[in-house]
Every structure is written in C-alpha cells, then in structure tokens.
C-alpha cells in the first residue's frame, strides 16, 4: 500500500514495490534481506518485544574517582588538554576545542584571563607538521559556577579555546596541534577525518550514545564505541552528571534523595574536567556533536543555567542560523541532522520553533536524502522513568517534523534502550519516524527497569511533566486498545523492542533509502548486536508536504 502525508493525515493512494526487499536488495556490495536476514522496517510493524532484565549483569555504575589516572591532569602550565573536535554545518569546516590552565574551586577563586593565552591551531595533510602547514586563530573564554550561599564552593574554569578551521577538503585526513606557540605551549599532533561531500552517495559511520556520565560502565561503553570505529559521534545529552555532587565533591546516585535540604541544586564542576580528560582519546580524533540534557541545567547565581555545556562544546549555531547553543543543525554526508532543545522554549511562538521551520524549509532532499532528529527527552517511551514527560514538546513539534519527512529520531534521558515501530501521534504509521532511545551510556543513576504498562506502575498524570519546563499536556489515550487510559496494560504496539542494558548504537546509512541500525550491549563483544534492523525510507510512498507559502522548500512535494 502507498501513503501520502497531507496536513498530518495519511491517505491511501496506491501500491509500492515491496517485493524488492523480500527478494533482497543489492547495494554497495551488500545484500539486504527481509525474510531470513536482517529485518527491515518494511517487514513491520513488529510485534512488541521486551527482553527480560539480565539480573546477572548490572555493570559497575560507580563513578571513577578523582585520582584515577584517566581523569587526572597530566599537562603542565598552559599546555592544552581536554581536546575535542566538532563539526560545522558542512564538510569543509570543523571546530577544534581545548582547555589550558587549571580550574579553581573554593571561596577565593580568581578567574584566569582568557586573553592571556592565544588560541591557535596548526594543521595540514602531512603528519610531520613541517610542510604545507596552515595556521588559524580562534577565541577563548572562561565560565564560572557561582553560588550565593555560605559554605558552597565556587568554581572557575581553565581557559576554554574554540578555533574554526575552514576550506577543508572532503573525506580527508588532517593532522593538527593546538595551543599557543608564542609561549611554547602546543599539544602533540592529533588527526581527524573530514566528512564526505553531502550527496546521496556519501555517508559517514555514526556512533550514538546518551547519558554517559563517568563510571566504570562508561569506560566500557566508550571502549566498545572506539572499537567500532565511527566517523562521527552524537551525544544525545547528559554528559558528566556533575550535578549529582555537592560542591565539596560528595556524590550520590540520587541527589534529591541524599541532599534534599540544599538551598540550591549544587554541582561539582571538576567532574566536567575529569570527563573531558577521559574522553580526549575519542574526541581528539572523532568529531562529537552534543545536545543538552537535563543534567546540563546546573542552576547557579542569577538563575544562570547551562553555563558549562554552552562554554565547553563548540556548536555550529551561527552557521546554521540558530541564536542558541541549545538547538542547531548540520550536514554529515547525505544526512541532515536537526539537534533540538528539550529545555528551552519549543512552543509554536518560540524562537526555536521558528528556526526549525526555516531550517526544514531549506533542506534539499536531493542532496541530503536522510533527515534525522536528535534531542534528549524521548516522546515515545514506555518505561516508568520520564513517562510522557515532554508531551508539550511532542504536541508542539511532532506534526512539523512528520510533514517534513523526518526518518529517524534519537533520544536519551531514559536509562535503557527502546526502538519503536514507525509511529505518529501514538498511531502506527508507515510514514512516521522510527524513535530510538539510547540513554544507556552507563551513568551512576543506573538503569531504568520498570515499564508503565506493567500492573501498578502507571504514573499519576500530574507527576509526569518535566519540572524545569513545566506545562501539562499529557492526557489519556483517545484511540486504540488503551483508549481512555493513561497507560497501556501491555507493551504498546508502537514499541517494537525494549531492553534494560548499557550500550551504544551505530548508524550506517547505505544509500538513499537504506540505513542499518545496530545497538550494541556492553556485556557482549563490541561487534555483536543486541538489536539490528534496516530502516528503509520510502520517499515516493511518503512525500514531503509542501511548506506554507511564506517558506521556501528546495524540493516541493509531488
């Protein structure tokens, strides 16, 4: 059968060649099979599957201590550390970021002067760095985490540097070093590979992780991720969990349980420095694109939030027309990524919503056939943890994304794994995106294991809205087997697969219509799959709806 989007509804309009998939579709030297091989979304919708919790595997969700060699400062003076790469909007530009100088924490902190150390990157295509080397300068900053309460320790960061390299060749290895050559404080030589030219023929291998933290489980997740050799990493929120600590360094798996009487939600900012040092073995070589999670809120004086997140990562916000670090977009080969903020206004009158309208209107599906959404809190989640927490975001944005033909959506927040059938407005829909939750990176809050559809687990509706964003949009289901109820009495039909385990995912887009998604569990070998499926686009069956006349689409619907 063939479906067409029209104002959010689905209309039967014809027939599509499904038999090609059943017989096996050959591309790129690989054969994708339906029956008897890796399943495809064309075989769905699938009967919901819940993999029972493996009680023998809990992992080790205990934070690395400050004296662990992997998180200790190993440089001197203003030598660079915590080196990372992130992408700009297109293949010919990347950002290099690092930290120089040490942080301070206590009562009498004296912020470093960002202008006292230069931000320089030397780079080229030759490893020796003696020939054909170019030099680019950027900017630097520091941030503070300050508390207006006696007894709480304040924090000021080292100097954070961001340098944007431009004019790069596609799909090319570059060698680089960063720092300030005038004071002989340069890093060693690192390397990265640029993204391929955006076209229907070119796609990077993408690693996807969420809710990492810095536990022994995290080290397993990151090691497995590195072994799978991604070209790009997406971090779907919640990096360090510094806000599970008091400013004196005392931590807990549950802040509100252990520290309910603190006058403000404290954080221990050195955990950001520990995390940056540990992650450098990955982020100095592979670009990482992050979006904020709730653990990045980190309230402080004057109601300031997201200070560490906004300062430490480089974002292509300006390049993508965004005025905020909380949402932006970029291309990676034939994929256009929209990184949305779940903790900044998203209603239809908000800057974010208007930016999203403009960004989607300018997506050229002839150049980037795949459209992927990324944000932290999931819209489709069947665990008790964060159940229907961001319904207001879904209500505001789902139709816009559906009409634009978003193919896949990645989220975190829930500390488990879940993949949906194609779904729109809680209804099975062959033109809806596949939602994938990978909030199972390994943080110390441990795994989510209870499902809202199990007896006695359905949350009270008034308790579900996100406390930071507020609003209440979560209502009972109005159709289907759960009509009139707030929760299903069995695993919902839109939930295809769920499992409580730590891990990461790999997305390998093969061509304009087929992408292989693989979820890897930490307890398995890095190259074994816990869940695997080909996600198949059907642009003729599900054409993009025309934008409003005030917006310009590169390719109009047919």
TrEMBL record:
Superkingdom as given in the UniProt entry: Eukaryota
UniProt domain Purple acid phosphatase C-terminal: residue ranges: 486-524
InterPro entries: Calcineurin-like_PHP (IPR004843), Metallo-depent_PP-like (IPR029052), MPP_PAP (IPR041792), PAPs-like (IPR039331), PAPs_C (IPR025733), PAPs_N (IPR015914), Purple_acid_Pase-like_N (IPR008963)
EC number(s) from the headed UniProt entry: 3.1.3.2
Keyword tags: Glycoprotein, Hydrolase, Signal, Zinc
Top-level class of the enzyme under EC nomenclature: hydrolase
Ranges of residues in domain Purple acid phosphatase N-terminal: 80-194
Record-given protein name: Purple acid phosphatase
Source organism per UniProt: Lactuca saligna
């Amino acid at each position: 059968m063939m479906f067409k989007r029209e104002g959010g509804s689905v209309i039967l309009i014809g027939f599509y060649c499904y038999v090609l998939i059943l017989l096996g579709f050959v591309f790129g030297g690989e054969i994708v099979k339906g029956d008897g091989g890796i399943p495809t979304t064309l075989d769905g919708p699938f009967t919901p599957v819940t993999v029972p919790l493996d009680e023998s595997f809990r992992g080790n969700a205990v934070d690395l201590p400050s004296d662990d060699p992997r998180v200790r400062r190993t440089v001197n003076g203003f030598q660079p550390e915590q080196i990372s790469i992130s992408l700009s909007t297109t293949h010919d530009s990347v950002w290099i970021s690092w930290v120089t100088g040490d942080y301070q924490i206590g009562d009498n902190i004296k912020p470093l002067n960002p202008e006292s150390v230069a931000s320089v990157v030397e780079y080229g295509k030759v490893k020796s760095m003696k020939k054909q080397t170019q030099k680019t300068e950027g900017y630097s900053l520091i941030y503070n985490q300050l508390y207006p309460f006696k007894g709480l320790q304040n924090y000021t960061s080292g100097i954070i540097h961001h340098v944007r390299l431009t004019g790069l060749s596609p799909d090319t290895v570059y060698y680089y070093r960063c720092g300030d050559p005038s004071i002989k404080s340069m890093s060693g030589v690192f390397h990265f590979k640029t993204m391929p030219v955006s076209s229907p023929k070119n796609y990077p291998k993408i690693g996807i992780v969420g809710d990492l933290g810095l536990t022994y489980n995290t080290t397993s997740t990151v090691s497995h991720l590195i072994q799978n050799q991604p070209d790009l990493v997406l971090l779907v929120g919640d990096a360090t969990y510094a806000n599970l600590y008091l400013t004196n360094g005392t931590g807990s798996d549950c802040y509100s349980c252990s520290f309910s009487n603190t006058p403000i939600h404290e954080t221990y900012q050195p955990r950001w420095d520990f995390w940056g040092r540990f992650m450098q073995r990955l982020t100095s070589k592979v670009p990482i694109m992050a979006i904020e999670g709730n653990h990045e809120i980190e309230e402080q004086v004057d109601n300031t939030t997201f200070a560490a997140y906004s300062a430490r990562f480089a974002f292509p916000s300006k390049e993508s027309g965004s005025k905020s670090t909380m949402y932006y977009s970029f291309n990676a080969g034939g994929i256009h990524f929209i990184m949305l903020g779940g903790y900044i206004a998203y209603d239809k009158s908000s800057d974010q919503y208007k930016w999203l309208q403009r960004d989607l209107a300018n997506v050229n599906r002839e150049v980037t056939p795949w459209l992927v959404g990324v944000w932290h809190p999931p819209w489709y989640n069947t665990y008790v943890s964060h159940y229907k927490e961001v319904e207001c975001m879904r209500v505001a944005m789902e139709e816009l994304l559906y009409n634009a033909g978003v193919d896949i959506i990645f989220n975190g927040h829930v500390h488990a794994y879940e993949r949906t059938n194609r779904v729109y407005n809680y209804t099975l829909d062959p033109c809806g995106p596949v939602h994938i939750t990978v909030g199972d990176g390994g943080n110390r809050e441990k795994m989510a294991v209870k499902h809202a559809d199990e007896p006695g687990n359905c949350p009270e509706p008034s308790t579900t809205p996100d406390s930071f964003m507020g609003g209440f949009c979560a209502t009972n289901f109005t159709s289907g087997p759960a009509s009139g109820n707030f929760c299903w009495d069995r695993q919902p039909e839109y939930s295809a697969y769920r499992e409580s385990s730590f891990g990461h995912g790999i997305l390998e887009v093969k061509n304009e219509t087929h992408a292989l998604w693989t979820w890897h569990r930490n307890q398995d070998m890095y190259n074994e799959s816990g869940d695997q499926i080909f996600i198949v686009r059907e642009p003729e069956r599900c054409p993009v709806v025309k934008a409003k006349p005030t917006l310009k689409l590169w390719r109009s619907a047919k």
